[in-house]
Batch of 3 targets.
Target 1
Amino acid sequence: ETGVTQTPRHLVMGMTNKKSLKCEQHLGHNAMYWYKQSAKKPLELMFVYNFKEQTENNSVPSRFSPECPNSSHLFLHLHTLQPEDSALYLCASSPSGLAGYTGELFFGEGSRLTVL
Amino acid sequence: EDQVTQSPEALRLQEGESSSLNCSYTVSGLRGLFWYRQDPGKGPEFLFTLYSAGEEKEKERLKATLTKKESFLHITAPKPEDSATYLCAVDGAGSYQLTFGKGTKLSVIP
């Protein structure tokens, strides 16, 4: 299996829908991340989890709700999104996010989200 | 606040035409500088980590170098399969997260 797997790869949703993105890592890492990638913009960090505990929330609107049940799985629950939330959502993992040092990130292939 | 600027925004090369991509950065206490490759519709793929000025790393046709203010990704005799967007990121002691540049989109024409 590939290191970091994301599902679904593509998602189209209306503004009133509720959906979830799933991420699973098979690398034995302790830190997991959600990033947002929009055209012409740098990658934007959304959330960080270390050992299942959320350590960073980068001022993300509450319509995005993360969940990390264990060190291998990460979810991003979506509800009442706006068209400007359309983007590629990337999950990543790293060996450890302790002491604030990220190290190399290993990314999944992303979930392309379109909000109508 | 850490900052990363990549140039050029886009680069078009003929197959075999060597060139360099630039990543200029400002950071308080560099803990690491990272290069990634991203193919269309896919997540970034890790290439290199550089930790201190003067360090160099190589992988196939790619060579990354680091100074106190910038990093270069040198591409020697590129092939069409090297076409991708190359991202640079820094991890600074004063920040809790990686700071990414916008990337350089490289196109290698046969």
Target 2
Amino acid sequence: AQSVAQPEDQVNVAEGNPLTVKCTYSVSGNPYLFWYVQYPNRGLQFLLKYITGDNLVKGSYGFEAEFNKSQTSFHLKKPSALVSDSALYFCAVRDNSNYQLIWGAGTKLIIKP
Amino acid sequence: DGGITQSPKYLFRKEGQNVTLSCEQNLNHDAMYWYRQDPGQGLRLIYYSQIVNDFQKGDIAEGYSVSREKKESFPLTVTSAQKNPTAFYLCASSPYTSGGTKNIQYFGAGTRLSVL
């Protein structure tokens, strides 16, 4: 079965420290992977995607993600966290049978000053 | 949220009542989607439409209905058959659904539906 797992419900990081939000996936065929961010009572905003090419993908707001095929992971990273990065982060993978997105449950990121 | 407008922002439903959530986009996207978001469960697909006058059921279509009479509009009706409708509803659109590298979904600001 195709799926996405975000193993951490919440991640706490001090401002200025590096952050990582974890995502693992299971999909048939080539993985198309996405990260989105959601601020309270708002819709989701696209951050970055991996389709093919370099395993390190750069996106909006200084975020990047590392694709690891052998570990079937697509972890979101940022070298130096900001308080304004506090939000809910979703990982998604494309279901290659119907081209719809399969969503993780989300990880709440809290950056403390 | 630019380009996709959801209304109303808050909606209350009485028992036995049908309610309709509006979603309009001016991005000229072909595909539109409705998701339901519950705490700790991520997004679940209700319905999606790839073209005008055509739509497909998602994972949790029971108790919901949609129409796609215009490219810009994809309203969702929550019927009285949906016994647990309290949730945050998100509408999205994308330029493609059948592969390609541009299948990024753009979201509206959401409608929060509660039962009176």
Target 3
Amino acid sequence: NAGVTQTPKFQVLKTGQSMTLQCAQDMNHNSMYWYRQDPGMGLRLIYYSASEGTTDKGEVPNGYNVSRLNKREFSLRLESAAPSQTSVYFCASSAGLAGGLEQFFGPGTRLTVL
Amino acid sequence: GDSVTQMEGPVTLSEEAFLTINCTYTATGYPSLFWYVQYPGEGLQLLLKATKADDKGSNKGFEATYRKETTSFHLEKGSVQVSDSAVYFCALTHNTNAGKSTFGDGTTLTVKP
């Protein structure tokens, strides 16, 4: 049981390049989330998916897009990376109301945009 | 909107000292409250939780009580160890299927031998 997995672990991009961060969970959770973590700012929600087939904007969605490919996978895409998107990105999942609401986090992707 | 305020860090303690990390929240309704811990280079993991007023969450010697009258969920441990050095996040989650959470900014704890 791997929990929540993320790829890649590290990535360096040049301004304007695009990339997709991958996330998968094997706990049969309904809800999935993408956060970014910046020093002194806690975690900020980028996008979330309450269930397969639905996605919604979080607190800081600009510059990002997401796809809930199936119940297991939730990807985050940067179409044209900017230095302001240098951050650590975490994917998380939750069983939702029926399962206790706690979130399970992946190990993170450390992204640097030059 | 919702918000979570944690005491500012960093916090440095000697081993076996008593720990308190304050957390207060602003929210409508009756959210569930959580403490998560993040060790260096890792993602967050659940430390403890409380789902209704006056509930006490506990785990690994840490405790926190859901106080609705003071909108607080302070984290305490009677005797910290070097291995407790980490960043601690307080969070609230509304009781909906989407389960979105609001996190505090985190408090860095360093325990010295």
